[in-house]
Amino acid sequence: MSVPVNGENRRVRAGLLGLGTVGSGFIKALAQNGESIRQRTGCEIEIPYILVRNPSKERNVKVKPEQITTDPGVILSSTDIPVVIEVMGGIEPARTIILSALRAGKHVITANKELLAKHGPELLRAAEESGVQLLFEASVAGGIPVIRFLQGYLTANRVHEVSGILNGTTNYILTQMEQTGQSFAEVLAKAQELGYAEADPTSDVEGFDAAYKLAILTNLAYDVQVSPYEIPREGITSIQPLDLKWAREFGYVIKLIGRSRRTEAGIDVSVGPVLLPMSHPLARVNDVFNAVTISGDVVGDLTFIGKGAGEYPTASAVLEDLTALLRQPGQVLRSPNWETPVYPDVNQEAVRPFFVRFKAIVDTFAHAEHQFRLFITRSGGRIVRETGMASAKEAVGGYVVTGLEKSVLQAFLTGGMLEKLLHEPPLLIPCAEDETIDCQDAAFAAEPGLYAKSVEFMSQSV
Ligand SMILES: NC(=O)C1=CN([C@@H]2O[C@H](COP(=O)(O)OP(=O)(O)OC[C@H]3O[C@@H](n4cnc5c(N)ncnc54)[C@H](OP(=O)(O)O)[C@@H]3O)[C@@H](O)[C@H]2O)C=CC1
Ligand SMILES: N[C@@H](CC=O)C(=O)O
């Protein structure tokens, strides 16, 4: 099914699947910029049908009642609708509808990272077989054109690393918890209100959403197929305002980072919280902003920063995909090749600094801490930063430990005697490799006690 080429001054009908945060943003942005899009592409965009689940729901955007439908068939069977825009989310029925649209010769634009990460190869194959485009700029990092960059520009480079802040909700939560001291639950509710979070926010806070996006970026960057199920993943639900406060006192901020790197053994890929030194370029990327750094062998490092969620940034990516189709209805971007499955290289064990926090009732804390110090010294590690506080009932300590592998620390913290002494599971977060730690280690060696601060027991509650 063809889309009119530039300059034909024709009307293009697109079917919209979903009228939630992104769908409404799309309609509003189209109303705002439809005329300038027409001038630039020669096409007037018309949305004859919008698929929703609940037709009687009140909408925060103006659409005509006759546009609303609950039947995807009206869009799929219309021969004068060459483009389908899927912003409904979830796997089914989105997968079946997109496959039907592609097989019916319609171009598809989607924001659905979960679907792409889990079923991307099947969808891309269907698009190729039908000679149509499957565009998905909005699926990663909201308004940042990172897909376009990987797929449309970086063809001559060999990319060796892709990393960044890939989830707006968690970045918003971490920033707001630190800056306002509000609880996790309060800030999450605000992120939902702002339209940043997924329909089930577990996907955001447990790191699934970032893993889907990282799988898409990894597949595009290295022409492989990494399953999101294989990506080692940790979320932010165990992080408390106190951790963010102490991290800052130690010279860090906590960010949820997705990172994939080509190694000899395959792809080293992971999603999880990391303490970034304040000097790190991503340390100042706050609130709903995302950042993606791509490292190519010829170009070096490129970092993109922009809003990663919310109605307008995401609508912008969807609308840009649509205008790209109108301007260039043939092959818009390099065909992705996601046919070679690779398994993440999960055996990477780096000796790097780690932030550790544990809590115990006051009576047992001193014993727990003594065991911890003994273990660190005997294992050849060092505590280079420490702090703590206590109330009448419980005490908590925060530390930066160097010289040990994660598995060694983890085995001690979660197994055996220490666990029995603790109030709640301990927190263990890696710190980004950075020269400052080495410098501080040197100072610490020269002047013991300069950085290791004795635990202050305060009367305020923990
Ligand atoms: N929110 C964001 O910032 C971003 C979201 N995305 C992705 O965009 C997609 C949409 O997200 P978002 O707009 O936030 O989601 P919402 O939950 O706000 O909206 C989903 C819309 O799809 C409709 N819908 C859902 N399931 C069905 C179904 N089975 N049949 C018919 N209609 C259905 C809903 O109908 P009804 O209104 O009647 O319930 C609703 O209008 C998701 O894939 C998400 O991951 C990507 C980037 C950013
Ligand atoms: N829930 C997602 C929305 C955009 O992809 C996020 O918070 O990043």
TrEMBL record:
Single GO molecular-function term?
Answer: NADP binding
- Look up keyword Transferase and say if it applies: no
Q: Which cofactor does it need?
A: a metal cation
Pathway(s) the chain acts in: Amino-acid biosynthesis; L-methionine biosynthesis via de novo pathway; L-homoserine from L-aspartate: step 3/3; Amino-acid biosynthesis; L-threonine biosynthesis; L-threonine from L-aspartate: step 3/5
Does the UniProt entry include the keyword Oxidoreductase? yes
The segment(s) forming the Aspartate/homoserine dehydrogenase NAD-binding domain are 18-137
The record's keywords, sorted A to Z, are: Amino-acid biosynthesis, Metal-binding, Methionine biosynthesis, NAD, NADP, Oxidoreductase, Sodium, Threonine biosynthesis
What biological processes does GO assign it?
methionine biosynthetic process; threonine biosynthetic process
Give EC number(s), comma-separated. 1.1.1.3
What PROSITE patterns is this protein classified in? HOMOSER_DHGENASE
Enzymatic reactions: L-homoserine + NADP(+) = L-aspartate 4-semialdehyde + NADPH + H(+)
Q: Which residues form the Homoserine dehydrogenase catalytic domain?
A: 145-322
Q: Which family does it belong to?
A: Belongs to the homoserine dehydrogenase family.
Q: Which PANTHER family match?
A: HOMOSERINE DEHYDROGENASE
Protein name, as recorded: Homoserine dehydrogenase
Q: What is the organism of origin for this protein?
A: Effusibacillus lacus
